[in-house]
What we know:
Elements: H1 8-11, H2 41-51, H3 73-86, E1 90-94, H4 97-108, E2 114-118, H5 123-135, E3 139-143, H6 149-158, E4 165-171, H7 183-193, E5 201-205, E6 223-227, E7 241-245, H8 247-260, H9 266-276, H10 279-298, E8 303-307, H11 318-326, E9 333-338, H12 342-351, E10 356-357, E11 367-369, H13 381-386, E12 393-397, H14 403-416, H15 420-425
Parallel strand pairs: 2-3, 2-4, 4-5, 5-6, 10-11
Antiparallel strand pairs: 1-7, 6-7, 8-9, 9-12, 11-12
Helix pairs in contact: 3-9, 4-5, 10-14, 12-14
Amino acid sequence: xxxxxxxxxxxxxxxxxxxxxxxxxxxxxxxxxxxxxxxxxxxxxxxxxxxxxxxxxxxxxxxxxxxxxxxxxxxxxxxxxxxxxxxxxxxxxxxxxxxxxxxxxxxxxxxxxxxxxxxxxxxxxxxxxxxxxxxxxxxxxxxxxxxxxxxxxxxxxxxxxxxxxxxxxxxxxxxxxxxxxxxxxxxxxxxxxxxxxxxxxxxxxxxxxxxxxxxxxxxxxxxxxxxxxxxxxxxxxxxxxxxxxxxxxxxxxxxxxxxxxxxxxxxxxxxxxxxxxxxxxxxxxxxxxxxxxxxxxxxxxxxxxxxxxxxxxxxxxxxxxxxxxxxxxxxxxxxxxxxxxxxxxxxxxxxxxxxxxxxxxxxxxxxxxxxxxxxxxxxxxxxxxxxxxxxxxxxxxxxxxxxxxxxxxxxxxxxxxxxxxxxxxx
Length: 426
Ligand SMILES: *Cc1c(COP(=O)(O)O)cnc(C)c1O
């Protein structure tokens, strides 16, 4: 498709769809159909030749609609629209973020490979990497945000693993700690260790800031992954995922998706297209609210610390430098450490009235949860401590409510929290 001249937010209502295809309907209808009628047997043959890569497409020849496990208008139009935000050549949409992530890892790793991945990552991803990939002969090497690409290269060289890395997987900002990884630096490392026989792919889970506030492909990454359940969906009513990158890499991903059968359905595609129309409005408002909430929390006597990108300063050193280089906004995710432990964190969560106690993030309503016992419950205790998922950590996803109401709710909930040391010192 030709590159359009308008900004993505101006195109989200119409791009890739023509009303004449559907009786003049201004919106793309839900194509709730499993299969598509071919005009002739010759046409069916031609569609399959392209779908199975048996020959190259001729000029102006588009892949035809075959069967909804391979393609469907609601999926294809959604994929075209998602490409605009990340300036990607192609996109594949999945039935969940985890299916996008697991399909990408399966496609680009082989038994015997080592996967280099940043820590922490989303709990489900951590489980997949450590438990599932392990069964298929892929070993994992985790690294922390404190390790720069240079330090990593040195460590891998010393351990004799430099030429065994099959793929690099990054999650930045990391869920739930908001720590940042240098995407450009890691992409350069991948290029340095790639060989003509084997390209080391860099995949970035961009769920926290994308597709608006961070563009990993522009920084040298090969694949961008999303839980579209979060900001892209944005209304806590759909589970979906996406993977974006070059035509060549996404063709491989789509091929595996066809055989795993983990594509999203037409109804999901339609819901996400509806969500994309307000994506920018929502994300900008959420980031604006989050900054105000973070500033309030930072000054609160019962809060030990606040991790929010919008509070980083020069004093934060390399993390601040990475933030300045690769993020366009601090986004709307924050995590706080309440003074005390699990008891205090739970008291805070139980006392909130407007903000809901639920996992997930990026939705119009604000959500709070306790990573150590909820989203990241499966991570061994020592590892949790090492990567900063402590018992007093609470993760907040800030929504589009009035910020003053959010602050009011947080304030009254913190009021209820009893901190023994604080009480004694008064
Ligand atoms: C939620 C989430 C996922 C998993 O996505 P699902 O849509 O729940 O499968 C992956 N990565 C991050 C950062 C997430 O927050």
